[in-house]
Batch of 4 targets.
Target 1
Amino acid sequence: MDRKAPLPSATHEPMSPAGRRGLYAEIEPFASGWLAAQGPHEIYYEECGAPEGQPVLVLHGGPGGAINPTMRRFFDPARWRVALFDQRGCGKSRPNASLEDNTTWTLVEDIERLRRHLGVERWTVFGGSWGSTLALAYAIKHPRRVAGLILRGVFLLNQRELNWFYQDGASRMFPDAWERFLAPIPVSERGDMVGAYHRRLTDPRANVRAQAAAAWSQWEGDTLSLRGPQARPAKFNEIEFAVAFARIECHFFANKGFFDEDGWLLNNIDFIRGIPGWIVQGRFDVVTPLESAWALKNAWPEARFEIVWDAGHASTEPGIVDALVRATDQALAN
């Protein structure tokens, strides 16, 4: 374990002209390491903020994404003890891009393994996009370990959402980007784009995997934000990141999130009804449209719900940053 001892600071970036909150100041981890998990996996994790602060776990998106320094900055570093980890096969976790023993439920086990390793009794769980899916699944399985849920860009991982983004829906709004997404797939296979990509992303030939990964990752990058196409974090090798991201994401989607039934999360929402919750959703989110967040809000009316009117899916859009920073500050009082 690598330990450092930065002095936490609660300094914010200046507010925008609209009076919106900005991210907290950049901060480095005070601890990091790898945690042995089930099967061949070693999970990279880090902690930052206040060692004696209120615990919060950050769940990155994808599946197949990775943590990055910006994710540390949604929390007051003088009051939160922030834990982040790269999920199986992702980022610095080892082995890279592995699909072995890589399911929603093994990730839930990893969260519990990390909680015990860090000596945390209960923590707030913060996740966006796929991170919101995993946060909900974890909270349903372990409600007594969750002090609060802060969710952004809600993704319930149901068939309707997958059809919208990978078959027919978002394609009508981004026909230029969709054409690039279609390009590697023969016309005869385009009736099931997730299945067609899954075959290529698990192909033994590296060049086939790389071509499919580049197209899959580009489609998501083209649709993330109202501010235009989004680049992947520069600290990752571009091809390596794209292959891990696309392989793992497609693996989860081809297996319907490893849920027992379509709509599993909403069907089990009563397990979390007593947990304080915050839901933040961009009005123009094309990746995970508002419909899913609205359904979650109706099933879980106790949660605080906010629509950001000038935002899409990306967590770094100004309105989303503002809403999430306010939510993390409010969660400190619970």
Target 2
Amino acid sequence: MKKHLLLIALISFPLTFIVSQSTNFQKVNSYTYPSFNDIRFVNENTGWVVGVSGSIYQTTDAGQSWHEQRSNSTSSLSSIFFLDDQKGFVGGGNCSLLRTSNGGTTWIVDSITAIPTGTASIGSVYFSDNLKGWILASTSAAGWILSTTDGGISWVVNLTTTKTMNKMSFFEANKGIACGKDAATLYYTSDGINWNLAPTPALGGFNYTRSDMRGIYMVTANEAYVVGWGSTVGAQPSIHLKTTNGGATWNYLTQIESNRTYDNLWNVRFKDVTNGIAIGGASRGSVLVRTSDGGQNWIPIRAPFGSTLNGIEMRGSKLWISGSSGLLIYSPDFGDTWQLLTPMPSGTIYSMSFPSSLIGYAAGFDGVFHKTTDGGQSWRGGFLNVGLSTLNIQSIYFLNENVGYAACSYQMVAKTTDGGANWSAIINDTTSATTTSYGVHFVNENLGFVVGKLGSGLDVIHKTTNGGASWTTKMNITGKDLRAVTFRNETNGIIVGYSLKALYTTDGGENWKVPTFNNLPVGFGTPNMLSVEFISETEALTVGVNFILKSTDSGASWNYIQSGTANQLNSVSAYNSSLGYAVGAKEAWKTTDAGNTWANIYDTNIFEGTLYSSIVDPNGNAWFGGASSGIYTNRVWVGVEDEKDVNINGFELKQNYPNPFNPSTIIKYRLAKSSFVNLDVYDVLGKQVAKLVNDQQSAGNYDLNFTADKLSAGVYFYTLKVDGKVKSKKMILIK
């Protein structure tokens, strides 16, 4: 490291000089990739993934980076197959079969007219050589299997069914099996032309309302597996079937109760006759189950992601999986550990929190949990995971940069003490889809409240006085879902919920009272209340379906505000007693007079669709959360911000150069005074991969050469912490 001494004249600037409030918003974050359906590798480095809207991406570095290929299609692409690194096929909607002979540099779209209807989707593709191949196509009411002997120039229908067909697998030419709508839709062939219907297997004595067969895989010419339907409703375990005679008969693989999952399984792969992985997921997050005894026992393993897993590829113990929300993940050790390959997974942002001007959090659907350490200029994508659960996050609340809480679906409430790197459940999840924790608020590190529902028409209020170690519970006060809770101090709090139900307390939640509602317009009815916020010691605002209400007596009574809103408002937030925001379905309202009047600042050129969350950071900048990990702000970063950072925060962190880099790059920073410095590097999952500085340093300029020859290609973040203040920047390693 070389050090250049620098004399700095310390000038005191007000904090608002760094950032200024503005009515002009910008989008600062969005998802990286579209939803993916299938994935295929031809070797350990080269692979493709396909998904919605004609999307095809290729990797040549084992999945660390992905590059979009022009598919010439807008259909959803469901399946992919490559004979070698040049010749490949992709099946999609509207009978489209895409083909390439140059590794995807160009794709040609064919419409398979031999399929009886033009609306069918090609769900599976297999070629045994350059000439001989099969495709499986389906609609919601019929399915077909077709074959070609001339490389796809012409196709012949070999099987027609009156049920949906989902997937097909071949072990070798002519040896194939296929599955479809239910357990009575299992077919096999031993000549590649004639498909035989297997007898419907018994399903373990369970009462299944559906038995969709989703994924299928042939391990040998005789042994194969099918996975499919599962549901928490009625305790319907995920279906596992096995055949030992090429699909002629199937046996249900009953799992012991502790190993049962209750989610849809969408795909299955085996690396040998004993070791396999099945993947899936639904509302409870990603699901991974693994067997080491030929499918007799399937053991759930940790899947620290929330999206539904659709496609799987296996090269020995190396696994690549694709899923909804643009999810791409990798395991080098057959599922023991996982790496998130997607820099920013997609998910609706239901809640945000800014405990400081630099540290912010955004969370929501599928358990997405994103973090910024540089005041929102860049965000690190990820998920909130506890054990085997990655649930929808309904709301988050951070007391400071490290201690935070999350209220989730299926009742779970999670706590972090290290800024979201690790979470533990302080209220455990259940398997009941009608049980949800919607709102969370902590007054201090001991006193906290969670509100939600235990079931239809059964509300619940949880209170803790020891940081979540134990809880007291009140139930069935309003008979409606409780959606949000806020406290001004240890005694005064407000809860709002469905059907114009609200409560307030003046004794720290020991007793809850019902407020009065004044001057409601004719026909107002009992709309749902979705968000509530104190704006002063006694004033509060609440929003919901087409309304804004204000209280001037800590929630004891509410008055209707003539705001002009005509749509559902999902969130209200405030900076002080004057400045506040309310956002919802294509509306974003701003008040500068304590909520008495409002102006709609929604800009269709900036905001995309419904806004679901809002927060005001400590500097008064507004932040809105939307669909697809969309984050918007009116914060303004000016070109001389780094210089001001030196003057105000005491340090400056420069962008590394070169960037992208391989394998070395220079990281520069500047200290205004002698300080204790930490400089660390993290991967996209928040795991520390390098500690570069941990020492007291004098004022001056510092140049650090960082060599990453032992790291995998991908996105990394380097974070500089100086006297407790943090700044972070993103860098990309390519190989």
Target 3
Amino acid sequence: MKNIRFSNLDRSKTIEKLSKETFDLVIIGGGITGGGIALDAASRGLKVALIEKGDFASGTSSKSTKLIHGGLRYLKQFDFWLVKEVGSERAIVHKLAPHLVLPEKMLLPLIENGSYGKWLTSIGLKVYDILAQVSGGDKRIMLEKKEALKLEPLLPNKILKGAGYYAEYRTDDARLTIENIKTSLQYGTKALNYAEVVKFIYENEQIAGINVKDVVSGKEFAIKSKYVINAAGPWVDELRSTDNSKKGKRLHLTKGVHLVFPYEKLPVRQSVYFDIPDGRMMFAIPRGKVTYVGTTDTNYDNDKDKVCVNLADAIYLISAVNNMFPSIDLEMEDIISSWAGLRPLVHEEGKSASELSRKDEIFTSGTGLISIAGGKLTGYRKMAERAVNRIAKKMEEDQGREVKECTTEKIPLCGNAFKKYKHVKKYIAEIYDRIRPDGFTEHDARFLVANYGKQTETIIETYATVNNKDKNVRMAIAELRFGIEYEMVQNPMDFFIRRTGRLYFDIDGMRNLMSPILDEFKRIYKTDDTQILAWKEELEREIDGHSNFSLDRA
């Protein structure tokens, strides 16, 4: 699959095209839901535009637990439909992007007075396998205490009774989002980040487009469209209010929090899904040089643009980890990074945050605005299919136009030129052989391939042309140039947070690369010193906000 230029260096041309053309569908929201809808709709032949008020994936879609998982805990809520759908979707999304959606064994410790008993867990995991159509080596097995301790010596010997062992998949949610959007470009989608909806355009009391503010220039422009989908995640209700159609069901926002530690501080050998004393469950997931833990599920009604981990969140998670792993004694100063995100769930009276359904719902207003909310990262493709089916039905009713069926289960995402996951492993080894002479590690090769897949070729070609003595700076500049040319990187935060995840998983590397990356932005965008200083200060605030847990964060 050839890389299609997708750059904010062409921003004025993109805006001109958005302004002059009339689209079948405009999607508001550049998260995983919006990106999935763009690919689904465009691949069915619709003329599609997608706009996002910030950067792509800058809301919920870069702040999940970063798992493509089947939702084992939803079995306890007897939500068999959800378990079946998202369980089946795991394997599909893995095939669409085997470099980006990686197999991950999950250990579920069974402890005295824990949430899961041995018999019910065995039955539950068996049902899970059946509903999710799990086959081969991915099927669950039940472990005795000795077997569980052999797999994970950090588990609590005194209260451990055994464990369940089953398969899930790990991903990078922000990269999964950008690759969906980029793949949709192959089918003609026009997409723009940093473009905020100001108001809707109406004809005969029906939505016929949107007025948009270009956040970069401050100028406004209009996009005409036959249909509009509101896929704005936590901001769905704001747009419904703009349309004067926020009636009936509404969003219920909950906050999920994650902490990152050096791997040597929490050296779990594989992912662990474990009990918290208050009855909730939590993940500990190793990822390269770090281990991250989460998540919480608490009601949230503060500023949606400034969601952060506070001192109470951090204390809660650290206490939970120390409780499950007695030989581990994590402290506040061991935290190297963190993130917090919002889940835009559909409100249900009388239910707590953790009891709310993760099913998605679609609302259509009297003016024709279609809004989609709820759902899980794992189920994004089916959510998109349902949303586009709704549009297809309206197109047939309104215009007599037939729209073909969804085929996204067969469309490989950008970077996927692999038939199977074992080919990804071979490619990582090949990349390692090529970059090892310059002093890079196998971890560096895995990072490149897991992020970019076969697009790593373009980055390595660019690396050879960068003039810098420091190999890490050279490679990061090659990544940045790729991001600016093919992934709409507009500022350093896009690069360090959403495109590479360094803020979360390599914060020291981010600190070391800040100056050369800012210099490269200045060169490419011809940015003045005032803007560079402002970006530097913003990066420093981001680092401090994600890693500093002094008392004033309480």
Target 4
Amino acid sequence: MRNHRKLAGIVAAGAAVALALTGCASNSSGTDSGAEGGDEMETIQVNFGYIPDFNGTSLLAIAEDQGYWEKYGLEVETPSFTNGPLQIQALGTGDLDFGYIGPGAFWLPASGEAKIVAMNTLGQSDRVVGQPGNDTIEDLAGKTVAVPEGTSGDMILTLALQEAGMTKDDVELVPMEPSAIVSALASGQVEGAGFWYPALATVKEQVPDLVEIAQNSDFEDTVAFPTAFVAGNDVVENEPEKVERVLKALRDAITFRYENLDEAIELTAAYNALDVDDVAADASNNKVLSLEELDTLTEDGTVDSWLTGMVDYFVGSGKLEGDVDTSFYTGDLFLQAGE
């Protein structure tokens, strides 16, 4: 049963952030006699951040429902966040052990602030949108465009502007939190946004003629949009057993999700108190990968090529400087957890 707790100490942008925490208490006895092979193991406490959408929640919802945390002797609390950069901050302060990020936040582990420990899905839910009458990115020149900074919405807007020979200086950029963007688009306070589904579905209820100017698939030849799970540098360096157990649980959940997608959608909806149809629509905007695919893509260097392309993008957009390798993805640990 899920415990509801408060996790103190999360600080973002100089202000205390109050988080609604949803803890997954997998084992109250302190040991797990039902772990692999029946061996008794000491329970390990884990704080695992997430974003309440399909990509950010589905594996955690599955791990709780299917008993994977308990299987590997883990007692997991899962605080909810609005974006990846906040989770990277919390990893750095030790308030989180693990978290979930979308592609727009990959520059943070690339800059050394965390490690990517597992790939998740390929995101296809990001859009550059405009109010009716704004049919191209050029139509947004000089107009107010909202974006949640450091996210995949920021990333797709930058790519769309670059493709048109424009920069952010050519629009009136307005940094906003995701919830504020929904309200601003619905009320017409901004002319456009770099944003994503499922939140855009809510906007379209108020603005049915909202124009989709650009989407992930427009750039798939040069940049992938993977989502991933991250861990604090100290956790990876100093707590190998915690990392291995969490990765084993995630690997089990990845297999379940691929083989039981409809049930995974239902579990995600229940976990986040969302409508099942809305979560199904969200899931349809993403490519769910099997465990075998993720292992192969890690082994054959495909993931490294994704990361290289993303690093090149972040260098070009000014987020990163100089030569950056892909060692911020600990693919070897992900593969070892399957042995």
